[in-house]
Specification:
With 57 residues, the chain is largely without helices or strands. It is built from one helix and two strands. The protein has a two-stranded antiparallel ribbon with strand order 1-2.
Amino acid sequence: MTTTNPKTCLDCCQFSDDGPDGFCRLANHPAVIEYCRNAHNFIDADMSRCPGFVEDV
């Protein structure tokens, strides 16, 4: 059985580390807002299902 590490916002290329706390560049996108407002999405702390998630390549 393969175990994968959950992805966080920090793994997403939409996350900017500019500023003291960093921020998601798509924080105002309706689909990202809807995803983040649903507490069920945070049960396993895997943000790779966020509609704005794009891994750095």
